[in-house]
Amino acid sequence: AQSVTQPDIHITVSEGASLELRCNYSYGATPYLFWYVQSPGQGLQLLLKYFSGDTLVQGIKGFEAEFKRSQSSFNLRKPSVHWSDAAEYFCAVALEGSSNTGKLIFGQGTTLQVKP
Amino acid sequence: EPEVTQTPSHQVTQMGQEVILRCVPISNHLYFYWYRQILGQKVEFLVSFYNNEISEKSEIFDDQFSVERPDGSNFTLKIRSTKLEDSAMYFCASKNDRVSGPLHFGNGTRLTVT
């Protein structure tokens, strides 16, 4: 079955430290890949997406993610975390070639806590 | 920046009652979606809607659920007879492009069924 796994439910990092959030997917084909962020009381905001081309994609708020086909992974990174990055982060996929790329399969989410 | 807006932010209802969750997608968007997130679980796709009809629905979206675009701006999700297990956060989303356009989400409606 198709699935998206975020192995880390909760991560705590110090402000200014680097961050990597993991995401693995299970699909036969290459999916479209997304990272969303949700702050408390807010909706899901798109951080970045990968459809094709360069496997390192840049997003908003200084985030980047790298697609690694061999590892079926799409990990999210940020070199220096700010206190305002504390939120819940969701990895999501849609099937390449799908006629409905708004139909996303989400991971469980990773809650990021930032220590001062 | 245009936003997807959802009302109400929190809805409390008794089991067996009908509820309507309302959404105003971004004005030039053509593709509309409902997702839900039960507390502690993943965000799940419910239904997609295009050209005034359902384009796809999940197994969750049974006969108790319906969607409608009653006018040019609103997009609603109706649950005919709510069950306790319908308690969840419901997200509306929209996009303007079938393939590459990003999905824009609203802030959600928290539905509590008592």
Note the main sheet of chain A: 6 strands, mixed
Distance between the termini of chain B: 37 Å
Count every beta strand of chain B, where a strand is a DSSP E run of 2 or more residues: 11
Quickly give the structural class of chain A.
mainly beta
- What is the number of helical segments of chain A per DSSP (H or I, 4+ residues)? 0
Mean pLDDT of chain B: 93
The gross shape of chain A turns out to be globular
Question: In sequence order, what are the helices and strands of chain B, one letter per element?
Answer: EEEEEEEEEEE
Span from first to last CA of chain A?
41 Å
Please state roughly what percent of the residues of chain A sit in beta strands, choosing from under 5%, 5-15%, 15-25%, 25-35%, 35-45% or over 45%: over 45%
* DSSP summary: helix tally of chain B: 0
- The unreliable regions of chain B are none
Short description:
The complex is a heterodimer of chains A (116) and B (114). With 116 residues, chain A is mostly beta strands.
Can you describe what's shown?
Chain A contains no helices and 12 strands. Chain A is an all-beta fold. In chain A, the strands form 3 sheets. In chain A, strands 2, 5, 6, 10, 11 and 12 form a 6-stranded mixed β-sheet that branches. Chain A has a 4-stranded antiparallel β-sheet with strand order 3-9-8-7, with no helix packed on it. Chain A has a two-stranded antiparallel sheet with strand order 1-4. Chain B is mainly β. In chain B, about 0% of the residues lie in helices and about 50% in strands. Chain B contains no helices and 11 strands. In chain B, the strands form 2 sheets. In chain B, strands 2, 4, 5, 6, 9, 10 and 11 form a 7-stranded mixed β-sheet that branches. In chain B, strands 1-3-8-7 form a 4-stranded antiparallel β-sheet, with no helix packed on it. Chain B is globular, with a radius of gyration of 13 Å.
